[in-house]
Specification:
flat; 4 strands; alpha+beta; 83 residues; two-stranded antiparallel sheet
């Protein structure tokens, strides 16, 4: 289960002032599978390998954002911005 909302302690940063409804920072919640018990299968150097855990999920999410930003740039659109 995943969700998002406002923090209880951090003030609104400058980049959220135009969109902010409250007085505290809005935080998004993203989730990827980080369980080593159910790994991601990856083709690496011609062989299938499997990886899991937060050490794999975090860069996987960063790569997804990079691919989306690359596509947006190619189409003349702005990047996704601060997630």
């Amino acid at each position: 289960y995943s969700g998002s909302g406002d923090t209880m302690t951090f003030p609104v940063p400058y980049w959220q002032k135009a969109e902010a409804a409250g007085q505290t920072r809005a935080v998004s919640d993203v989730a990827l599978n980080a369980s080593p018990a159910t790994p991601y299968w990856v083709r690496e150097y011609g062989e299938w390998q499997y990886y899991g855990g937060t050490s794999f999920a975090s860069p996987t999410f960063a790569a997804i954002v990079a691919v989306i930003d690359g596509k947006r740039k190619a189409e003349g659109e702005p990047r996704l911005g601060f997630l």
